[in-house]
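hey all, quick one before standup. I had two proteins in the batch that finished overnight and I want to keep them in one place so we stop losing track of which output belongs to which input. First protein below, input sequence then structure tokens straight from the run.
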Amino acid sequence: VVDGDDAVRNDAHGLLGRYGCIVETAHTGGEAVYMVRNCEPDLGYHVVIADIRLEDLTGFELMTQLTGILEPSRLILMSGFGYDPGHSIVQARRMGLHPRGILYKPFRLDQLLETVEGILDG
């Protein structure tokens, strides 16, 4: 879970953790890229959930930096109230973002779980 907001990271971590997910969090896109690149090859990340407006990258920029390491369809982009000034979501969809790979904040537990399950099932 990649977000500059402590509350969002903590909420997502707590909610997913209750359902048996192993969750790691990052504050910035650069930190997330480092984590994905340096994880154990056989233990890779199944899903990355990232805000579209990070301190250092947009959601689309994060997606491009993860290309070749993580399938675009394994990324979920979060947006507050559907606000996407840089059109990260449109650009990411063109590059292969899963059709269900959008999560609007503030999200409820059922929305988070449905989105993650939709990505994992797809």
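OK second protein, same deal, sequence then tokens:
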Amino acid sequence: MYFDELKIGMAVNTAPAVIEKEKMLAFARDYDNIPLHTDEEYAKTTPFGKLIAPGVMSFMSVWVKYLEVDFFGEALLAGKSTKIEWLKPVFADDVLTGRATITNLVKRNAKNGLVEVSIEAYNQNGELVLTDVTEVIVKCKPIKEQ
């Protein structure tokens, strides 16, 4: 979908993403190797009482489902920025669903515009676990030559 076709408030829901324990542990060992994510005995002593998923993994699990929706198709040029906020812990076997909403549009020039997409991710209990605001650059419709 081209920049010119987008409207603030357009939204899509994502398919569920299951946080599988073995994938969670492997991700943590590779990218966020702290005891809260990798050591079950240690995690029992924390306020969470058990292992929690790395925040970036939680976000990426929802992000990949958002990408499957392919909101912009071939009109997507590039990502510009992202800001994630984690609000509640995510545990092994949690099921996360997301809602992505266009929250701002800024035309940059005749060729492209900046699209702000806000994502809310919820666990299987309906609790908001994280939010993200991502900016992407999207092509404008090509100008037809006369």
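Flagging for whoever picks this up: The longest helix spans residues 55-69. DSSP finds four helices and six strands in the chain.
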